[in-house]
Amino acid sequence: MSNFQILFQAVSSSMVKIPFPLFFKGEFFKQTSSLSMYFLVAILSLYGMNAHADYASRIQNSNSGYSIRIDSNSVIEPVARVGSDGKNYYRVGNPIVIDGNSAQVSVSGLVDCVGRRWGSSNTRIHSSQAFHRLFMYVASAGVTIDGKTAYRINNNLVMTVETPIMNWINIDAGMCSYAYVGLVRAAQEFTSQFPVTITFFINEQIIDGKLVIPAMDLAGYVRAFTEPKAVPPFDSWPLSDSTVPMRLAASQLNVKAMCSTQTSSGQASTVNLRHGQLSSIHYDSLVTESIRYTCKFAALTKVRLRLDYVTDGDPQKRLPMKDASNRTIYSKLDIVDEQTGATGTDIRVGIHSNRTIYIRSRIQGNNADAGSYQGSAWLIATFD
User: Fold this and answer.
1) What are the phi and psi torsion angles at 187 (to 5°)?
2) Taking a C-beta distance cutoff of 8 angstroms, is the pair 221, 194 a contact?
3) Looking at the chain, which residues constitute the CATH 2.60.40.1090 domain(s)?
4) 53-254 fold
């Protein structure tokens, strides 16, 4: 069940000043005072002429933007690329080029030309004073592949990004120049920043032909205009304030499989562990489901099984389960090998023709808020 999605559910119940002369008399006082006033007016006028005016275009609905989908029938490149860490990485399909023409990229949404603002209220700025940047929202994998920084999608999937806009860069762009408050443009009309090329790689070859890819925020493209022309003073940017957000769509990559799987919960690629209704005052529940691998290996083959999920600040590194109000309880997850009893979130087993493993979830605690709590994790099976 490489990359099986594992779903969990529990329901709890019950629940600058310029001084003027002060001691002059007669005409001399009047003349000096007049000169001083003129000097002050001149200073203020010059200051107004040099005021900064800056704005960036912003998506209206932060859930729209670029959506990137990996082709489910993408071929895994058989020849590995060696990363800067000395490990092998296998390219998934062809690089995806975001240029307005890719079949694997869709774009939606409307953009307010005058979105985020700083400086004065002037927005009539020339297209030659446009700056562009792509802000990344996924963590660096700490490795480069083909000389490019890799970003971590999950434990077995990384991506590289090739574009000149990883830092602020000045590129002439007419869309949203000379703007005014209320001017709206379609996200698909923003093209001066293209191309952006994304390439996906897996760390390890999977055994059962399924690579589940979660939906997630990847990056945010920002277009800003500054007067006078200067690099915007920001090195971070909220996704919701970006000009066009960039996201990875949920998908499943199908590759040549050496193993098939069967789950006790009856679904092909998902195991549901349902804790049912529990008391919110005191709860302690253990639920287990099985996954059986049937493989076509010629000999006993070492396989690595590991659970992948996003943790928070919990010192025990348990799976966070959230309710509709974003309140949290935790599940302790384990993989259990039926034959050896080996237990943990990352284990190694030998498989020749078949093997059964269990996924175990335990939630326990006291005085939780009543609600329906859910969480998900992925089981990744790769050649060891």
Assistant:
1) -60, -35
2) no
3) 4-13+256-383
4) Immunoglobulin-like (2.60.40)
**Rounded CA separation 161/134 (Å):** 10
Is 168 in contact with 232 (CB distance < 8 Å)?
yes
Phi, psi of 185 (to 5 degrees): -135, 155
Convert the pLDDT of each residue in 19-47 to its tens digit. 322 222 232 323 333 333 333 333 333 33
The bridge status of strand 251-254 relative to strand 210-213 is antiparallel
| Alpha carbon distance 1, 207 (integer Å) | 8
Bridge partners (DSSP) listed for residue 329: 321
CATH topology of domain 4-13+256-383: Immunoglobulin-like (2.60.40)
Q: What is the pLDDT of residue 297?
A: 86
CA atoms within 13 A on the CB side of 334: 15
The closest of 13, 12, 4, 6 to 319, measured between CA atoms, is: 6
The H-assigned helical ranges of the chain are 26-49
What pLDDT is attached to residue 105? Answer: 96
Locus of tokens 């859910």? 374
